[in-house]
């Protein structure tokens, strides 16, 4: 794979050189930091606008109000704090990783970008599986960090990143940095990769089983799969996130489920294996 380096100074109007590519006025590193956050609120905002959708919910509204002990206001505040933390750390990481060379890497060919995407998905899944599982096994980490995410027993879209800031740092920011570095993707590809990972995470917490959801066609790790993990009986299963279920399958933490229709409307994801 050959990368061509484009020098930003060549865009100067005083220069006699004609650039072949115009760089964005805003750096890809900045976009890679802020676009996924905008995507988070836009995508989860769409779910809010869709309303209650009782016929597609995985839990009834009454169950949500009863089981979730934190208010929506607290959740929004918690997500904003975690995102502010995430912005600071990812800007720092991007600064260290790319330096201030003022160069933009040209995009490789599409098959290479697809391969980098796949590698990044595997790296992120691997990192998140083991860190997530460790946060459940280690009582201290669970009590002080990961339990915050589990206060949403009935997840909803904009609660996807309701985490302790340290969890955001360990799982998402470091996981993202590793995916970026190991896959060798450019900061421009990273804008799309981080945005896609954000969409996937929001969708896995949407609490709905909507017909025609394309993510459900391509991924077995979905809103019902992750719903099992959010239930009090399910916290020893379905740690895999955000893309595949492979690590759960390999390491015996996979909990298959069936989707049963509720008489009140909607569906219930029911484990079909004995819970230990
Ligand atoms: Zn968990
Ligand atoms: Zn979750």
From TrEMBL:
Tell me how this protein sits in the membrane. Answer: Multi-pass membrane protein
- Does this UniProt record's set of keywords contain Signal? no
Q: Which reaction does it catalyse?
A: a long-chain fatty aldehyde + 2 NADPH + O2 + H(+) = a long-chain alkane + formate + 2 NADP(+) + H2O
Which residue ranges run through the membrane? 30-53, 74-97, 109-130
Cell location = Endoplasmic reticulum membrane
Q: Please provide the record's keywords in A-Z order.
A: Endoplasmic reticulum, Lyase, Membrane, Monooxygenase, Oxidoreductase, Transmembrane, Transmembrane helix
Keyword Transmembrane helix attached: yes
Q: Name one GO cellular component term.
A: endoplasmic reticulum membrane
Q: Cross-referenced Pfam families, in alphabetical order?
A: FA_hydroxylase
An example Gene Ontology biological process: lipid biosynthetic process
Q: Which residues form the Fatty acid hydroxylase domain?
A: 117-253
Q: Which PANTHER family match?
A: STEROL DESATURASE
What family is reported?
Belongs to the sterol desaturase family.
Record-given protein name: aldehyde oxygenase (deformylating)
Q: Identify the species of origin.
A: Dendrobium catenatum
């Amino acid at each position: 794979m050959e990368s061509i380096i484009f020098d930003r100074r060549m865009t100067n109007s005083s220069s006699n050189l004609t650039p072949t590519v115009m760089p964005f006025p805003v750096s890809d590193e900045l976009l890679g930091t802020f676009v996924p956050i905008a995507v988070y609120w836009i995508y989860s905002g769409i779910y809010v606008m869709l309303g209650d959708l009782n016929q597609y919910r995985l839990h009834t509204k009454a169950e949500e109000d009863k089981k979730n002990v934190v208010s929506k206001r607290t959740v929004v505040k918690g997500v904003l704090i975690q995102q502010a933390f995430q912005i600071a750390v990812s800007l720092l990481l991007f600064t260290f990783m790319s330096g201030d060379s003022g160069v933009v890497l040209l995009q490789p060919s599409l098959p290479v970008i697809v391969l980098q995407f796949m590698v990044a998905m595997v790296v992120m899944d691997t990192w998140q599986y083991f860190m997530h599982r460790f946060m459940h096994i280690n009582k201290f980490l669970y009590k002080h960090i990961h339990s915050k995410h589990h206060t949403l027993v009935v997840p909803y879209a904009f609660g996807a990143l309701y985490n302790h800031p340290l969890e955001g740092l360990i799982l998402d920011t470091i996981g993202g940095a590793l995916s970026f570095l190991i896959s060798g993707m450019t900061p421009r590809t990273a804008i799309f990769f981080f945005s896609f990972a954000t969409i996937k995470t929001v969708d896995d917490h949407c609490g709905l089983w909507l017909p025609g959801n394309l993510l459900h066609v391509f991924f077995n790790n979905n809103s019902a799969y992750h719903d099992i993990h959010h239930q009090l009986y399910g916290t020893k299963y379905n740690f895999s996130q955000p893309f595949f279920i492979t690590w759960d399958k390999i390491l015996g933490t996979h909990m298959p489920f069936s989707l049963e229709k509720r008489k009140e409307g909607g569906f219930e994801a029911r484990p079909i294996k004995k819970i230990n």
